[in-house]
Give the backbone structure.
Amino acid sequence: MPQTYAATLLFNVNGAAVTRPILKYQIESAYTMMGPLLPDGGLFSLRLNDHALAIAIAAKSVTVPYGQEIRVVHCATGNVIFRKTAATVSPVAED
């Protein structure tokens, strides 16, 4: 059976109706997030439709300043499904 996704109906500048999928999960932090799976320059939040992808991106990300909280939130309910804070010791670059 094909999967269906909820969508919002929007109108572009020409008045034509367009749809945009409702993104269910938000990766968020009160601080700038950076990581190998995020765009350069960092973000404060990112919305995705796949919970496993959202958790993987959050797990691979860090905040600036280092060690602050990163959360993955289910947008419809507001439930935090993943929470990450770093250890109290900052990572040390190896020579």
Summary: The longest strand covers residues 25-34. Helices lie at 51-60.
